[in-house]
Amino acid sequence: MASNIIAKADFTFGAALAVHELNLSTGSGARAISGIHRHFGISSSELPGTEGSFAEYSDLQPGIYQVNVWLESQERSAGSRDVLYAFNQADVVEITDTTPLIGQNTGGLYETAPAITEVVEVPYGELSIILVNDSTTTGTTIAHVTELQRIGDLPYPVPIVYSNQPDNFIGSAGYNEPYGWANTGTGDRAASTLNSFLGFSDPVIQQGAQDAEGWLIPTNGSLIQYNVVPGVYRIIWELISSESEPTRDGFFIWNGSELSVGGRRSLCTNQVTTTRFSSGRITTELSVFGPLAFIAVDTETTSGTTEIRIHRLEKIGEITGMIIFPAHYQLLSHPLNLATTALNSYRHSELNLTNTQTLPQPEPYLLESWEQWWWPGYNWRWHHMNPDGQDDSTLNQEMQDFSFPTAWNNSEFKTEFLTLASDAGLKTLAIFNYTPTPALFSNSTDEFLAFQVIRGLYRLAGVIGEQNNINPSPILDQLIPTANAGLTQFFSEIVANNPASIAAIAHVFTRMSQGYLPPVFLDSVNYTELYQRWTQSWGLD
């Protein structure tokens, strides 16, 4: 049952008292608006006024809240008003003001405005109620807030809020509660140094990025980085600048996949001092595929300082309809196809073995037979040439942040991986002449055996790829025969111990095709080896 919590303020500031109701005043005890701005990390464009008071409520259950209030005020002149706001850590919302009292004069010291009821969203568990003088400090207003209670759920999922204290930074950057920051002032670094800090082998930062205003090419700057999981994020940020030329300076966003212009000095139109200008708090929503970086950059000259401030960082959803690590995704089938093609060719062409399941006609037992599964990764990795023949460094950029757990957080990538692994696993059983009807159930032991099949394929792809253009002679004579012998013994021992296990392994692969990722794949040793073998399959240059 909802309860009225108006008397349970966690913090008050200025002329504020919460007992049976919340009383806020713009009279004696009210504080300068600058102190309120500092407390909340907001600007005068978001909360105008000269002075005021507030009460803060914390640890609230996210939801829709009802606020009941009435005002009594000495403000009656046109052009002068006092305003009651609610701030939910994202938006400043006007609840009511003294406008209805303009021109009234009943002879008393105060005029009274009728009680009103408003509803506000509380997505982050915090709500502040703020009363301010909008333009003058003459005349006192008292807000009588009689009720604050939760009346319903939010019409959208509750956001996951990350700390805005950076996990990493370089240059003139850090954390100044309540925001993370990076600027182009003393201590900033060359663009090439920022590039190396993010682990890029190509000059990603130095090349800059383009938006509607053209290219933003940096000379130097600073950055802050947040280690977040992939998803859709809402970022509330602010740009502060003393750069005199509006066309210079700005900041980049690296979303784990690409570099983009986050904002420019030209957004800073609100003058906060004689030399500094602010963009005000701006909200950006974007898909994030790995560690997230904000990079304040200088261009052309080093006069003036531009600073990016991150006020809030929150995950608001999962990435849908978009593929994380698109270069890796494009190469996802290659190691499995390389390994199964090589095994199938060897067993049929060299050993004259057959299988009981219809499979594509085996390729001749030649290196060229599976080269189509090798050269795309090799060219992309070492020569920055994608499978379409275009100059492309995406694969190398993705390698800085790639991990299977991160990729599996993306539904499209996970689905494709599981489909390919399931198909390759069942195909391997058929290549070795096992075609069981999948069992009705399987356990963790069966899942580990299924993983070993997939690991065996990645291992074979890795050693073939590594030798292919360095010393290919052992591939046909040693590497593939050794892998075949190892898998033959592996399956033989399984059948000897429990013939039903083959059908159980087939059940695991069937479940994987339906979207099930066995926990054994999430073991750090296991997924790390899979990725090492995958990159190994791209060869050496």
Properties at a glance:
13 helices; 541 residues; 28 strands; alpha+beta; eight-stranded antiparallel β-sheet
Q: SSE layout and pairings?
A:
Blueprint: E1 11-13, E2 16-18, E3 22-25, E4 31-32, H1 33-40, E5 51-57, E6 63-73, E7 82-87, E8 92-97, E9 111-112, E10 116-122, E11 127-133, E12 141-152, E13 160-162, E14 168-170, E15 173-176, E16 179-183, E17 189-190, H2 191-197, H3 204-207, E18 209-211, E19 214-216, E20 220-226, E21 231-241, E22 250-254, E23 259-264, E24 270-271, E25 277-278, E26 282-288, E27 292-298, E28 306-317, H4 326-330, H5 334-350, H6 375-383, H7 394-399, H8 404-408, H9 411-431, H10 444-467, H11 473-497, H12 501-513, H13 524-536
Antiparallel strand pairs: 1-5, 2-3, 3-12, 4-5, 5-11, 6-9, 6-10, 6-12, 7-8, 7-11, 13-28, 14-20, 15-16, 16-28, 17-20, 18-19, 20-27, 21-25, 21-26, 21-28, 22-23, 22-27, 24-25
Task: Explain this structure.
The protein is of the alpha+beta class. It is 29% helix and 28% strand. The chain contains 13 helices and 28 strands. The strands form five sheets. Strands 13, 15, 16, 21, 24, 25, 26 and 28 form an eight-stranded antiparallel beta sheet that branches. Strands 1, 4, 5, 7, 8 and 11 form a six-stranded antiparallel beta sheet that branches. Strands 2, 3, 6, 9, 10 and 12 form a six-stranded antiparallel beta sheet that branches. A hairpin with a 3-residue loop joins β2 (16-18) and β3 (22-25). α5 (334-350) runs parallel beside α9, α9 runs antiparallel to α12 (501-513) and α10 runs parallel beside α13. The longest helix has 25 residues, at 473-497. The radius of gyration is 32 Å and the shape is elongated. The chain starts with 10 loop residues before the first strand and ends in a 5-residue tail after the last helix. The mean pLDDT is 91.
